[in-house]
């Protein structure tokens, strides 16, 4: 299972998720985006620009 967190650097909510994953010993990747200029793939899965976003095996 692959986990990917998507957020922006100053988001306090993604920090909570990352701390929990670290505590549980779960491997994950994190990608920071610029919410002022979000990539198209992000807008396709989060049109309201809500973060953090967790992608599990390619599924949001």
TrEMBL record:
What protein is this chain from? GST N-terminal domain-containing protein
- What Pfam families does the record point to? GST_N_3 (PF13417)
Q: Which CDD domains match?
A: GST_N_family (cd00570)
Q: Point out the signal peptide segment.
A: none
Q: Which residues form the GST N-terminal domain?
A: 1-60
The UniProt entry, under PANTHER family, shows: GLUTATHIONE S-TRANSFERASE OMEGA, PTHR43968
Spell out the GO cellular component terms annotated for this protein, sorted alphabetically and separated by semicolons.
Answer: cytoplasm
Lineage of the source organism? unclassified sequences, metagenomes, ecological metagenomes
